[in-house]
Amino acid sequence: VKDGSIKRVSGPQGLCHSFLVRTERLIVVSLLAIFGFLAFTQTAHAFHQVNVTATVTRVTNKLNRCFDPLVVGCSRPDYYAVITIESNSKDPSQSCSFRKELIENRDTITPTTWTCSARMENPIVVVNIWDFDGNKFPDLADIVAGPGESLRVPVTRGTTSITSVGDDTNVMIIITATREPSKLFPPLVNQREFDPSLNETITISGAVDHQTRLKIRTNSTLGRADIGDINVNGPFMFVWNGTFIGGTAAPVAIHDIIVAGEGGNPVISSSPPTEIINGINLIKRPPNSLAILSSFPATKSKPRWNPRAGPLKLEFLLSSSATVELDITNGNACPITTSLETISSSNLNPGTSSLSWDGTILRGGSRQFVPKGIYTVALSATFSNGLPNVLVPREPCFQVEVIDPPPLEIAVESSPIVALLGEPMMFTATALDAEHADRLTGTIEIWVADVIEVGAHRPPTTPVMTCRQSSVCSVSIITATPTTGRVAFKAVAHDILGSFVQTPWRMAEVIDPSMIGTGAIVMAGVPMDFGPSPPVEFFGRFNQSKTIDTVYFPGNFDMSADGSDPTVFRGIVADHIKQLWGLGPQRRFPSTFLANQDNVSFWVALKNATVVNSNPFDPDPNNACSYGASTPPWSEVNAIVHRTPCRDNSKRFFRLYSAKSPLISWHEMHHVAFGLADEYCCDGGYWQQSIFPNVYLSHVDCVADPLSGFGSLTCQPIRDNNVFTCPISGQVQGIRGWRLDSDTDICVNNTPDVMINNTIELGADTRRASHVFSECDQGKC
Amino acid sequence: MSRSQLLLLFAAAIVSTCCGLRSTSAQPAVALEQPIPIPANPDINAKHLRITLHMQERSITVEAISMDYGRARSYIGDPDQFRAKLFGFSGKVLGEIRTWDPRALAVYQANSDGTFTDPFSLKQETEGDFFVPFIDSLTYIELTDRWNNSYARIDLVNAIQAFCTANQFDSECSAWLKNFIQGSTP
Q1: pLDDT tens track for A35-49
Q2: Which of A381-385, A584-588, A723-727 is the least confident region?
């Protein structure tokens, strides 16, 4: 498009920009309409306005005698002039008479003030010279050929000197004519940013009130140059394609566009009529690009994805407007040629966007989750400007492995385990898979309630926190209860149209600090015996006959309310509980305690229990911890949590043990709560439970166990690795017993087993624990 | 396979057990009798007896006996190392508790590889509280080992009488007192 031509500009670049452009267009169109109307109505008169000045500079009497001999007393002429400036247009004539400047009795005069000015289109200067003979008889001097004719001079631009020779009088006049500058209305621009290399232009719209010549120039930090020189009349549009006159490309810079009308000065921008459009950004747009910013699941190495835990999601960055598609097909199929499913989003704005696939396809009229397997996912974009694309990565196409939903467990903890009045409490729910690794879940909810409130028929109706597509969900509550009392909490986890698990409502106490140091034993996670659908009055009930109740005692802690030890103690107990759930902090593994959490209660004693080294000066085994505590009659387990340098020990008849480490609690709980025997050699405790033992004292009994030979489980001797040679079978003197938890001989070091090295529960351990918990379910705990 | 089936298989398979506190070769066979279950009492009026024991070698002495409200702990998961038989007025066995040996002690020992073991032994002397649930017409308990060798017979009548006299409006206490006044003796 050449300068000065009118062209439809390219489309808007974005919603906001589009709005601005539309607004500017509207104004331009309005102006064009107005000036178009004016232009139409004034077409016939669309001539130049001219400022004209006519000056009579000399008048000479050619007769060299009196001017009118017929008149008595004839004397030299008394000249005066009448200058009229008239037009053949509708402009009214301008007439100037200079009788007051009468100069009497002079044959030649050179007036200096006989000047007449006017502004009109196509003016004609008409001059008449008169000899004043009194008001009644003025004589018209003959200043052109023919008597009584006026001197008529069409005006031309510039300064013209004319000498007219008449019959009796010569007259000299000087006519100066200049064109009147046009009024220039402030021009508008349709957009302030354009990239000429993409054939983008800007359109400057404006109007002048009469035909004029416009010079258009840019001014930037890199210099200035003309970009247009156009003749316009009325409304005009100037399309700039980013080049100077002559075709040189304008530099990438911010340009001020100066529009100067005739009479204005395009260099001196303040000289009217001149208008400036500031800040036109001539840019070089980067290539179209689509870059993946993040993805779930990660795009690396065929991630495993359970769609029921939440959608596959790709977040990406677009350089400009585009329609983006997410194509899915089964198998390894990069690039995708035939899609199983396409998720599309059109006209996405530049910037960050995302697309998700929920793992379903339309089948049989309804959306169904795809079966497990390998699927290929590819992202593509079609940019609005139709230019080539740059994709990051070059081929945003990858595979995911859709898996069936893994097993799902949920644990919930409170921190602190027992709150002081006014102390914030954080509740954390963790969704776990079969190995107790964090497990992404569709939804995790945390519910919190004040037991008193619920008992007063104000049960919670919504969770206090809902987390989606997450494995851990936390919420901190400033005041769980307004007064001392019991706060109840539970967690719910469920996949989308899939597994649903929940913890029981557990209760923890909110105590007045003054209780610290007293003999009180308070709840630190006691499940309610709420039943499936009891009245809300039952909220807060618990049944210790159904739970294994563990009390944690502070061993050598300064249990005064104003010290830090109570907080430290509560934190350590929280770690012991966490380990019992199989959530660390030392190790993570599946836990029958968590699997049967309805039957597990935790309590905290607030009074310190003294722990001393029974004989710190003697070597092992005499430096066992010596301790005592007034245990409640109802607790199945009493743990003294301490930091004293002495050897932990357990008095199982009295249900009392000391523990510096959560893993000691983990191991000891399997002795005390389930009666499991040690499975390592050679100084542990070995006995054979009458029901579901984990250790047999005879090989015959062991092989008779249905677990023996089940899968890979065989009866293995518990015996000293240094004495016997593997494998060993049959009754052998010196063997402590037989275990059937694994086909791994005890000869192999580090055999993982809770009763060997405090790690995972194996088949016989789990069987025994489950038996005990089933007894608890029947109220026998 | 159901749990009951497994139980049956175990019952058929296990012909002898031994406590593990002695060498396996020296243990006499023990009949696989089941303990007499103690009725569960989830009632909030459950009561218990606290018996403070002192045990030295095989000798047990009772330091104190008291009774109070509150349920007694369960012994559901315990190994069969020590037994407490609960007797009523007529000498009827009301129930049996099978639990750990009072002298059982496991002292943890840290190993150089970061693991630990819990060597098991029997202390020569020990002392602590043993909790027994109050049921029916309980009058005394007999403490034995798993081979029913008696260690001690503990008369609970005085402790129960004192508590129940102070709590006559408790239905279980009034029933017990009624039996006691009618002349039933252990």
Answers
A1: 443 333 333 233 456
A2: A723-727
| pLDDT range class, residue B29, cuts 50, 70, 90 | very low
Which two three-digit tokens encode residue A222?
Answer: 């890199």
- Sheet of strand A472-477: strand arrangement: A409-415, A425-432, A472-477
Residue A686 touches partner B, C-beta closer than 8 Å? yes
Q: How far apart are CA A55 and CA A81, in angstroms?
A: 10
- DSSP symbols for A484-501: SEEEEEEEEEE-TTS-EE
CA A505 to chain B, closest CA, distance in angstroms equals 20
pLDDT at A101: 57
CB contact (8 A) between residue A633 and residue B78: no
| Nearest CB neighbour to B119, from listed A683, A687, A757 | A683
Cβ A681 vs Cβ A720: under 8 Å: yes
In angstroms, what separates the C-alpha of B43 from chain A's closest C-alpha? 9
Strands of A99-182, DSSP E: 108-109, 115-121, 123-131, 139-140, 151-154, 158-165, 169-179
CA A54, chain centre distance (Å): 73
Amino acid at A91: D
Helix (H) or strand (E) holding A39: helix A15-41
CB A262 within 8 A of CB A223: no
In angstroms, the separation between the Cα of residue A543 and the nearest Cα of chain B is 7
Which is more confidently placed, A672 or A393? Answer: A672
Average pLDDT value for chain A:
85
Burial classification of residue A136, based on how many CB atoms lie within 10 Å of its CB (0-12 exposed, 13-18 middle, 19 or more buried): exposed
Residue A122, pLDDT score: 81
Question: Chain A partners of B104 at a C-beta cutoff of 8 Å?
Answer: 651-653, 685
Q: What local confidence, expressed as pLDDT, does residue A132 receive? A: 80
Maximal CA-CA distance, chain A: 178
The enclosing H or E element of A637 equals strand A637-642
pLDDT tens for residues A460-519?
A: 899 999 999 999 999 999 877 778 899 999 999 999 999 899 999 999 999 999 999 999
Residues 43-102 of B with CB under 8 A from A: 48, 50, 68, 70-74, 76-82, 99-102
Of A678, A688, A779, the CB nearest to B40: A779
DSSP classification of residue A144: S
Q: How far is A673 from chain B (nearest CA, A)?
A: 6
Helix (H, G, I), strand (E, B) or coil at A29: helix
A591 DSSP 8-state letter: -
Among B79, B105, B130, beta carbon nearest to A675: B79
Structural element, H or E, at residue A17 = helix A15-41
Joined tokens for residue A308: 């029921």
What is the phi-psi region of residue A222: left when phi exceeds 0, alpha when psi lies from -120 to 50, beta otherwise?
alpha
Q: Looking at chain A, which residue has its C-alpha nearest residue B97?
A: A653
ipTM surpasses cut 0.85: no
Task: Give residue A62's pLDDT.
Answer: 87
Question: Which residues are CB-neighbours of A350 under 8 A, at least 6 positions away?
Answer: A14, A318, A319, A320, A321
Q: Does the beta-carbon distance from A653 to B104 stay under 8 Å? A: yes
Section A614-631 average pLDDT = 75
Distance from CA of A291 to the nearest CA of B (A): 48
pTM of model > 0.80: no
Least CA distance to B69: which residue of chain A? Answer: A633
- pLDDT band, very low/low/confident/very high, at A733 (cuts 50, 70, 90): low
B181–A contact, CB cutoff 8 A: no
